[in-house]
Amino acid sequence: MAQGAAYAGRVPLTVAELDETELIARFAPRLPRGVRTPVGTGDDAAVLRFDRGDAVVTTDVLVEDHHFRRRWSSGADVGWRAAMQNLADVAAMGAVPRSLVVSLVMPPDLPVDWVIDLADGLAQACAPHEVGVVGGDLSAGPSVMVSVTALGELDGVAPVLRSGARAGDQVACAGTLGRAAAGFALLELADSGVVLPDSVKGLVGAFRRPTPPLGAGVDAARSGATAMLDLSDGLLRDAGRVARASGVGIELSSRLLGPEAEALQEAAEIAGIAEMDWVLGGGEDHGLLATFPASAALPAEFRRIGRVRDAVGHAVTIDGEPPSVRVGWDHFSG
Amino acid sequence: MAQGAAYAGRVPLTVAELDETELIARFAPRLPRGVRTPVGTGDDAAVLRFDRGDAVVTTDVLVEDHHFRRRWSSGADVGWRAAMQNLADVAAMGAVPRSLVVSLVMPPDLPVDWVIDLADGLAQACAPHEVGVVGGDLSAGPSVMVSVTALGELDGVAPVLRSGARAGDQVACAGTLGRAAAGFALLELADSGVVLPDSVKGLVGAFRRPTPPLGAGVDAARSGATAMLDLSDGLLRDAGRVARASGVGIELSSRLLGPEAEALQEAAEIAGIAEMDWVLGGGEDHGLLATFPASAALPAEFRRIGRVRDAVGHAVTIDGEPPSVRVGWDHFSG
To answer: Residue B196 gets which letter from DSSP?
Structure first.
C-alpha cells in the first residue's frame, strides 16, 4: 500500500476491492476500437478484417521491477511503452499496426487508478495511429505484468525480414538512438539523490514514453529495404542479429553516428559515461534499423550510419574495428 | 529449488543459468509452425495469410498459484491448458483456430526442463489442429505466467456472438460440463491425504488437460447458431452472459442436464458435494454453449439442455426456478 502516499491521505481503491466485471467496466471503455474491426471487445474474441494483405503478429511482455518500476513510470507510461514496443515490431516488418490485445496481471493492492491510467496510456499510444485495443484478460498475480500482442497488415508489400541484407547495401536507422538508455541512467542517478537539470529531462521522457517512428517501417518497405528490425536491445546487438540472419557483416561509421551521440553529451557528463556507449548499446528507443540497396534513396526518416560488408571477422565493426563498448541488455538472465 | 526433489538427486538446470537466446534455441524448435504462415518465429513478427475470411483474436493468461499449481500440473499440462483455453475462445466465435503467440514469465529458479515441457504441451495441443505457435517472448519475473493470444479465421461464415439468442431458441452445449471442477476438487482432497480410486482419475486428467470440442464451433456456426460462448466460468455464469448480451432469459432443464451430472456421481460422493453443483458452476472444461433456432438440427457434438425465453425474472432459471448453487469462480477478486 506504499502507493497510498501519492494520494495525499486518501486511501486508494485497490483492484482487490473490485471484481473482474467491475474492473473491466472501468477499463475497456477507455480503449480505442480501431478501424475495420467488425467485433471489438466483449465477446470471446474480436473480429478483424484483413483485406489488404497478409497479417503480422508479435508479442512482448513488460514485468514490474524487470522492465519498469512503478515509482519511475506512471500507469500511463507503462501502458504507452507496452503498446509502442509492440507496434514498433509490427512496423519493423514493413507493416501497418492495426490492433492489439492486452493481458494484465495485478497484485491485489494495486490502486484501481493505476489500472485506469494504464488504459489511458494504451489509448494515447494507439488512438493517433488508428490502432484498436480489441481484447484483453485481467488476472491477479504477485506483481504487475503487461503482455501485449500486436497485429498489423502488410498493405500489399512483402514483409521485410532480418535476413535480406546484402554486401554493399546501405545501413540506416530511423528514430532515436540511446535516448531511452540515457533517460534510464538519469532516473537511477535521480533515485540516488542527484538533482537533474531541466535540459536533460527530455531523455527521461524518452525512457518513459519512447516514440518509435511507426510510419517509417512502411516507407522503408516501399523504398526497397532489404532487411529491417526494431532496435530494442541496442544498435550493436540488433545489428548483429541482422548480420547473422543475413550472413553478412555490418560496418558502422563513428562519423555518421556522431550526431546521435552529440545529443546525449550533457547527460553523459552527468552520468560519467561515454555518450557513444548509449548510442551503440542502449535499447528501448524502438527505432528501426534497416538496410537498403546502395542505389536506393533513403526514406525521409532514415539516416545512413554504415554499410553492409561480407561476413568476415566480427559480425559488427565500427570504422573497421571490433566494438569495445559493453552492449545491450539481457532482461532474462540474472 | 523445491522442484529439485523430482529429479532424483540431480540438480536441474534453471532458467537463470541460460541467457534468453539459449533458452529460445531450446524452446522454439519444439513448436509447430501451422499452415499458411509465410514467416514463423525468429523475426520481429510472424506473417499470417488470412485469405478465407475475417480473423478473430483473443487472449488469456494463466498465473501460477492462481490458475495452476506446479505440484499439480506439469509444464506440459500448463502449456496444453494455456493453448486450449484460447483455442476454445476462437472456436466459440465459429472460427477455425490458426495460430498463437505466447509470453512466458519465469522465476529464476524454474528448471529449464519445465520450460521445455511447457513447449511440448503447447505443441501437443496445437499440432493436431494444424495450429502454429508463431511467436513469443520470454522474461524473468516473480512466478510463472503464461499469456497466450490465439488467432483464427472465420472461413466464410459470420462470427457467432453472445448477443444473438432469441426467445424460443434451443439451448445446447458441446464438450463436457463440470469435469474440470470435479478434478480440481479431487486434487485438493488428494493434497490433504485422501487416496483417490482409479475410477475418478479421469476427472483429474480433465482438469489438467481439458479437451474443448474445437471443431464444434465451426459446425455450430454452419448450423445457424444464434449465439455462442466458451464455457470457462461455469454454465450458470456463462449462460447469464448470453442472456444479458442477448436481452433474453435462459431456461435450463435439470432432466436434460441429468446425464452430465451422472458421470460425476462417484467423485461427488468422495468430495461430499452435489454433482449438479459442478455441472452448473464448474468452469474450465471449455465446452461451448450455443443457442440455435427451434427448428435447427443440432450438430452432432451438441446436446440440448434448455431453451431461450423472454427476459423476465432471473436471467437463468432451472426448471423455472432461480438457481441455488454457488456458481462459478472469479479468479480476480480475493
So the answer is: P
CA of B128 to nearest chain A CA: how many angstroms apart?
22
Which domains are delineated in chain A? 2-153 (3.30.1330.10), 170-318 (3.90.650.10)
pLDDT tens, N- to C-terminus, chain A (334 residues): 344 444 456 778 999 999 888 999 999 999 999 988 999 988 999 999 887 779 999 999 999 999 999 999 999 999 999 999 999 999 999 999 999 999 999 999 999 999 999 999 999 999 999 999 999 999 999 999 999 999 999 988 999 999 999 999 999 999 999 999 999 999 999 999 999 999 999 999 999 999 999 999 999 999 999 999 999 999 999 999 999 999 999 999 999 999 999 999 999 999 999 999 999 999 899 999 999 999 999 999 999 999 999 999 999 999 999 998 654 444 433 3
Identity of the residue in B47, B103, B139 whose CB atom sits nearest the CB atom of A56: B47
Q: Is the ipTM of this complex over 0.85?
A: yes
Residues of A in contact with B229 (CB under 8 A): 43-44
Interchain proximity A58–B66, CB inside 8 Å: no
Of A19, A57, A60, the CB nearest to B332: A19
Q: A19 among the known binding-site residues?
A: no
10 Å Cβ neighbour count for B301? 17
Separation in Å, CA of B106 to nearest CA in chain A: 9
Q: What is the CA radius of gyration of chain B?
A: 21
Which residue in chain A has the smallest CA separation from B49? A54
Residue B282 · residue B234 · CB < 8 Å: yes
Who's near B72: CB < 8 A, 6+ residues apart?
B187, B191, B208
